[in-house]
Here is the input.
Amino acid sequence: MLGTLFNIGDTISFSVYPAVILGNNFKNLKVEGVVPARLAVASGCDVYGMHANVYPTLPTNSPNSADKYNYVLLRNVNDELICVGEVWINQSTVVRTTTTNLEVTILGAGAAHIALVREALQAQGLDVGTIEVKAP
Here is the structure.
Protein backbone atom coordinates (compact mmCIF):
# COMPACT_ATOMS: atom_id res chain seq x y z
CA MET A 1 0.00 0.00 0.00
CA LEU A 2 1.11 3.56 -0.68
CA GLY A 3 0.54 4.87 2.85
CA THR A 4 4.12 4.04 3.71
CA LEU A 5 5.59 5.84 0.68
CA PHE A 6 5.00 9.35 1.97
CA ASN A 7 4.31 11.29 5.11
CA ILE A 8 1.92 14.03 6.11
CA GLY A 9 3.34 17.28 4.80
CA ASP A 10 5.17 15.72 1.84
CA THR A 11 4.71 17.45 -1.49
CA ILE A 12 4.22 14.84 -4.20
CA SER A 13 3.42 14.43 -7.87
CA PHE A 14 2.19 11.25 -9.57
CA SER A 15 0.18 9.69 -12.38
CA VAL A 16 -2.96 7.60 -11.94
CA TYR A 17 -4.20 4.51 -13.77
CA PRO A 18 -7.65 6.03 -14.42
CA ALA A 19 -6.16 9.13 -16.12
CA VAL A 20 -8.94 9.05 -18.72
CA ILE A 21 -11.46 9.56 -15.89
CA LEU A 22 -9.50 11.62 -13.36
CA GLY A 23 -7.07 13.47 -15.62
CA ASN A 24 -3.38 13.51 -14.82
CA ASN A 25 -2.91 16.85 -13.11
CA PHE A 26 -1.54 15.44 -9.86
CA LYS A 27 1.43 17.74 -9.41
CA ASN A 28 2.84 19.42 -6.31
CA LEU A 29 0.11 18.22 -3.97
CA LYS A 30 0.58 18.35 -0.21
CA VAL A 31 -0.21 15.12 1.66
CA GLU A 32 -2.80 15.75 4.37
CA GLY A 33 -3.21 12.11 5.38
CA VAL A 34 -3.91 8.52 4.39
CA VAL A 35 -7.30 7.31 5.63
CA PRO A 36 -9.79 4.45 5.22
CA ALA A 37 -12.89 4.90 3.06
CA ARG A 38 -15.19 5.93 5.92
CA LEU A 39 -12.90 8.82 6.91
CA ALA A 40 -12.47 9.88 3.30
CA VAL A 41 -16.27 10.04 3.05
CA ALA A 42 -16.38 12.10 6.26
CA SER A 43 -13.92 14.48 4.54
CA GLY A 44 -16.39 14.98 1.69
CA CYS A 45 -15.07 12.45 -0.82
CA ASP A 46 -17.40 10.25 -2.87
CA VAL A 47 -15.14 7.19 -2.69
CA TYR A 48 -17.90 4.70 -3.53
CA GLY A 49 -18.99 6.52 -6.68
CA MET A 50 -15.42 7.13 -7.75
CA HIS A 51 -14.42 3.51 -7.11
CA ALA A 52 -17.25 2.28 -9.33
CA ASN A 53 -16.05 4.60 -12.12
CA VAL A 54 -12.33 3.87 -11.91
CA TYR A 55 -12.31 0.16 -11.07
CA PRO A 56 -12.33 -1.02 -14.73
CA THR A 57 -9.09 0.95 -15.34
CA LEU A 58 -7.17 -0.42 -12.36
CA PRO A 59 -4.49 -3.13 -12.55
CA THR A 60 -5.51 -6.77 -12.24
CA ASN A 61 -5.99 -7.94 -8.65
CA SER A 62 -6.99 -4.46 -7.42
CA PRO A 63 -9.61 -4.68 -4.67
CA ASN A 64 -13.15 -4.58 -6.03
CA SER A 65 -14.47 -2.69 -3.02
CA ALA A 66 -13.91 0.91 -2.03
CA ASP A 67 -13.61 -0.26 1.59
CA LYS A 68 -10.64 -2.53 0.85
CA TYR A 69 -8.01 0.19 0.39
CA ASN A 70 -7.02 3.57 1.78
CA TYR A 71 -7.35 7.06 0.34
CA VAL A 72 -4.73 9.76 0.16
CA LEU A 73 -6.04 13.18 1.15
CA LEU A 74 -4.16 15.90 -0.71
CA ARG A 75 -4.27 19.71 -0.94
CA ASN A 76 -3.55 21.58 -4.14
CA VAL A 77 -2.20 25.14 -4.44
CA ASN A 78 -5.78 26.49 -4.41
CA ASP A 79 -6.30 24.81 -1.01
CA GLU A 80 -8.81 22.33 -2.47
CA LEU A 81 -9.01 18.86 -0.94
CA ILE A 82 -8.42 15.99 -3.37
CA CYS A 83 -9.02 12.33 -2.49
CA VAL A 84 -7.24 9.61 -4.44
CA GLY A 85 -7.48 5.89 -3.80
CA GLU A 86 -4.06 4.35 -3.11
CA VAL A 87 -4.57 1.70 -5.78
CA TRP A 88 -5.44 4.38 -8.34
CA ILE A 89 -1.89 5.77 -8.12
CA ASN A 90 0.82 4.35 -10.35
CA GLN A 91 3.41 3.83 -7.60
CA SER A 92 6.35 3.98 -9.98
CA THR A 93 5.47 7.61 -10.82
CA VAL A 94 5.37 9.01 -7.27
CA VAL A 95 7.90 11.83 -6.95
CA ARG A 96 8.57 13.76 -3.75
CA THR A 97 9.33 17.42 -4.26
CA THR A 98 11.81 19.03 -1.94
CA THR A 99 10.70 22.60 -1.76
CA THR A 100 12.48 25.82 -1.07
CA ASN A 101 11.55 29.44 -1.63
CA LEU A 102 12.51 31.39 -4.74
CA GLU A 103 12.93 35.12 -5.01
CA VAL A 104 12.61 36.39 -8.58
CA THR A 105 13.17 39.88 -9.98
CA ILE A 106 11.28 40.67 -13.17
CA LEU A 107 12.68 43.77 -14.84
CA GLY A 108 10.33 46.23 -16.51
CA ALA A 109 7.17 44.85 -14.86
CA GLY A 110 4.71 46.72 -12.70
CA ALA A 111 1.57 46.33 -10.62
CA ALA A 112 -0.46 45.53 -13.74
CA HIS A 113 1.57 42.31 -14.15
CA ILE A 114 0.95 40.90 -10.67
CA ALA A 115 -2.18 38.91 -11.56
CA LEU A 116 -0.59 37.59 -14.77
CA VAL A 117 2.58 36.45 -12.97
CA ARG A 118 0.59 34.87 -10.11
CA GLU A 119 -1.67 32.96 -12.55
CA ALA A 120 1.29 31.73 -14.60
CA LEU A 121 3.09 30.42 -11.51
CA GLN A 122 -0.03 28.79 -10.09
CA ALA A 123 -0.69 27.12 -13.44
CA GLN A 124 2.64 25.36 -12.91
CA GLY A 125 1.44 24.07 -9.53
CA LEU A 126 3.48 26.55 -7.51
CA ASP A 127 2.19 28.03 -4.26
CA VAL A 128 2.69 31.78 -4.69
CA GLY A 129 3.43 33.75 -1.54
CA THR A 130 3.89 37.47 -1.98
CA ILE A 131 4.46 39.50 -5.11
CA GLU A 132 5.68 43.03 -4.51
CA VAL A 133 6.35 45.98 -6.74
CA LYS A 134 9.61 47.70 -5.77
CA ALA A 135 11.04 50.95 -7.05
CA PRO A 136 14.17 50.53 -9.17
Remarks:
- The chain has a mean pLDDT of 89.
- The longest helix spans residues 114-123.
- Strands lie at 11-14, 26-35, 71-75, 81-85, 95-96.
